[in-house]
Amino acid sequence: IGTCPTAIMPLLRDNFTGVLHHWARPEVLTCTSWGAPIIWDGTFDPHVAQKEARRRNLTIGLTVFAVGRYLEKYLEHFLVSAEQHFMVGQNVVYYVFTDRLEAVPYVALGQGRLLRVKPVQRERRWQDVSMARMPTLHEALGGQLGQEADFVFCLDVDQYFTGNFGPEVLADLVAQLHAWHYRWPRWLLPYERDKRSAAALSLSEGDFYYHAAVFGGSVAALLKLTAHCATGQQLDRKRGIEALWHDESHLNKFFWLNKPTKLLSPEFCWTEEISWRREIHHPRLLWAPKEYTLVRN
Ligand code: 2GW
Ligand code: MN
After folding, report:
1. Spatial distance between the Cα atoms of 286 and 293, rounded to a whole number of angstroms
2. Which of 69, 104, 156, 253 gets mutated to test ligand 1 (max ligand atoms within 8 A of its CB)?
3. Is 291 a catalytic residue?
4. Cα–Cα distance, 93 to 226 (Å, whole number)
């Protein structure tokens, strides 16, 4: 973990984060080698972002899939906590993709916020449930979602918000540093290594390991991302192979080829399974506990 070279610091501002206060967090990496900010608690002013998003009257989409038993297990807490912490004061449209329309819980929504429920098929294998999100998101982004939202965040459902997750996270292409892997050397990262896979990265490739539980960006950027991942998954399937971490492997390949313009520190998607770390000041989203025996069969 290093610090940002002083010479490129002036580059690190965008309309949402304003000037990044790198000096506030000298112990962590606050920019990438290609000049994208990595936002950590204390490096940005949330009011700058809020004002900018209001000025532009933005609508932010939040997509989540709740298929099968994941619906009653996770969806309500996800949505209730999102109402408290996700883009408060902005226009928000939730897209809940599910195979069980009638089971979606009623959640009271704040002003300027609405929820749309979209039917999806239930895949037989859980790996397919996860990977099927890419083509489904692509289609939605090309339709109503893409028309009504300016920026979209695509999240796993097995997590809940615990702190402000506001417009400071917005940018053209946003990636999430994986809580388990952000301190690891690159050659150890769990990328797909089989060269036959569309998701393959060699030992000398890869910048960071990104978590597929959170990604976002503009509609145009996400159309490209979801097309890339859906196509890669399909190519692998035709060859009778499947990437190590499914859609996440393809996402990591995409972000290697198309550098994200903003990275979220692990504070934005943390897990309490990791013991205390001094650099984690303010977790904003926490992984919900998994009960594999209950849901993975
Ligand atoms: C998934 C695994 C085992 C059993 C069920 C499911 C399942 C997932 C399901 O029954 N219903 C469902 O709606 N899902 C959706 O897929 C849901 O939105 C969930 O958050 C998402 C990914 O599955 P999840 O959260 O169990 O996988 P993780 O937490 O191990 O996720 C990482 O790796 C995945 C690929 O293996 C994805 O890339 C995911 O984005 C990563 O966070
Ligand atoms: Mn998950």
Report:
1. 21
2. 156
3. no
4. 19
**CATH code for the structural domain at 6-289:** 3.90.550.10
Which two structure tokens, joined as six digits, stand for 17? Answer: 């984060």
- Strand segments, DSSP code E, in the chain are 13-14, 18-19, 38-39, 59-65, 91-98, 113-119, 151-155, 159-161, 173-177, 210-218, 262-264, 285-287
Do 141 and 222 contact (CB within 8 A), yes or no?
Answer: yes
Handedness of CA 218, 221, 226, 227 (dihedral sign): positive
Rounded to the nearest angstrom, the distance between the alpha carbon of 157 and the centre of ligand 1 is 8
Residue 295, CA distances (Å) to 72, 112, 160, 252, 273 in order: 11, 34, 18, 26, 19
- In the chain, what are the domain boundaries? 6-289
Q: Using alpha carbons, select from 164, 139, 137, 162 the residue that is nearest to residue 152.
A: 137
Which atom of ligand 1 is found nearest the CA of 295? 4
Q: Is 207 in the pocket of ligand 1 (CB under 6 A)?
A: no
Report the candidate in 32, 16, 13 with the shortest Cα–Cα distance to residue 182: 32
Residue where the block lists tokens 């979801």: 226
Q: Looking at this predicted complex, what is its ipTM? A: 0.99
- Whether the CB of 65 sits within 6 Å of ligand 1: yes
The tens-digit pLDDT sequence of the chain (297 residues) is 444 554 455 456 688 988 889 999 999 999 999 999 999 999 999 999 999 999 999 999 999 999 999 999 999 999 999 999 999 999 999 999 999 999 999 999 999 999 999 999 999 999 999 999 999 999 999 999 999 999 999 999 999 999 999 999 999 999 999 999 999 999 999 999 999 999 999 999 999 999 999 999 999 999 999 999 999 999 999 999 999 999 999 999 999 999 999 999 999 999 999 999 999 999 999 999 987 655 554
